[in-house]
Amino acid sequence: MTFKATTSLSDARAYLGDAPVMAKRRVAEAGSVKETRQLRVAIVHYWLVSMRGGEKVVEELCRMFPQADIFTLVCNRDRISDFLKTRNIRTSFLQKIPGAQRHYTKMLPLMPFALEQFDLQDYDLVLSSESGPAKGIITRADALHVCYCHSPMRYIWDQFHVYRHGLPWVGRALMSVTAPMLRAWDVTTSSRVDVFVANSDYVANRIRRFYDRDSIVIHPPVATDDFSVGKGKGEFYLYAGQLTAYKRPDIAVRACTAAGRKLIVIGEGEQLPYLKSIAGPTVQFLGHQPFDVLRDHLSRCRALLFPGTEDFGILPVEAMASGRPVLAFDAGGARETVSSPQVGFRFAEQTTEALLETMAAFEEGEDDIDPQAIRAHSLKFSSAVFRNRMAGLIEQQLSTHADRSVDAFNRRPV
Q1: What is the DSSP string of 137-172?
Q2: Among 11, 26, 213, 227, which is 20 to 30 Å from 405 by CA?
Q3: 99-132, pLDDT tens digit by residue?
Q4: pTM for this prediction
Q5: CA distances in angstroms from 139 to 37, 42, 286, listed in the order given
Q6: What is the gyration radius of the CA atoms in the chain, in angstroms?
């Protein structure tokens, strides 16, 4: 069966002679995200071994598209949410390698091969969640591929030397050999993406620098409804998160030790022994804590100390959702979240001295802080805002993609 070049749009949508046209019909008839249950959707995430910002994005995408299947390199079901456990999760061959759930980062050279083994030919819409290698999957030619980019892979780009120095000599040698090939693969696979979505202006600039692609900024979802404003002005400073070098927890520990201010540290990581060695009596380490404990401390702290550079940084928004101010290093996503003196202060240098000066300025005006105003600011980054903005973007892209598909069909020679 053939159509002439003058075939109408309705006739083209009704044509069911081959699978690609069936997919075009499904896309063309999806007038909005609420009407896309007929679409076949795949969500691709680099690995599911914890519940951090990237995994929260996957959860929201699953709520938007409950019919979606999840593809991931490695999954540890003991470390993901009950909600994600209910989804259809498909893993790569890396899952079968002993120790993969703990040592997945050491398998970076194998990840491109593992990703390209996923068969996504049945899917009309592919949503990749990128921080490790996720965008490199191979989609059907007429599928729409939207990549939500938390960050281009830090360990082969701007953080390459930081990660390399932390490896034994064998790892350093292997990384030196494989990194150029991985960079080439990473840049090449950026062309497989139809639309890049960045989680911050900071990441949008990095996408432009490394991939030479424009992107649309949509901040990641923060569960602001899970937090409430605490009473009083707070009892202590708080640092929370991984105790790893690039997050610079040492700055918070040194500053509070020098100033004699009470600091509570929640988190674990390789820097814990070192941090304990430089901490004074006013610093208390609680280690890893469940969410309820973190939420309680966020509501009772004087301010959250955030001395690292993050692509976005969900924790500062969670602190603000609790009505607490944030003292953050002036870089990365903090420039977009800690955006005025009403919600916190940013310090220009990543040093103990700069944080001490900022703490002094904060304490001078601490009584004028309005917790309700801080919380109101945090609502700009809520899960509902994320879903609405992503829904609008995907709806627009589906419509544009369907129009192009039908136009291409109409131009087919008879």
Answers
A1: PPBPTTSEEEEEES-S-GGGTTTHHHHHHTS-HHHH
A2: 213
A3: 888 888 778 888 999 999 999 999 999 999 998 7
A4: 0.83
A5: 19, 10, 45
A6: 24
